[in-house]
Amino acid sequence: MSPEVDNDTLARKTAYAIGVTQSEFTISGQSREGETTYYTATTKAGKLYSCFVTKTHDPMRTTTMTNWVISDAKCTQMKGNKPVAK
Length: 86
Prior knowledge:
Radius of gyration: 14 Å
Structural class: mainly beta
Number of helices: 1
Order of helices and strands: HEEEEEE
Largest sheet: 6 strands, antiparallel
Number of domains: 1
Number of strands: 6
Strand content: 35-45%
């Protein structure tokens, strides 16, 4: 089993995905299925996002932790339990 995705990585990738700084949101509700980490991001402005990142193993990398490649965060803005239409 691969290592967990650390909070700094989740925060950095989420900030980029939702377009706010890391200090403008919190992450909660982390769960993991295989190599995918699911979580919720809530901004100080009250916007709610359902997000996930995935990890893939890159055998061409040789150091212990960096042989796992973490995807960009994929986030969908939610209203209640439904996606917000764009």
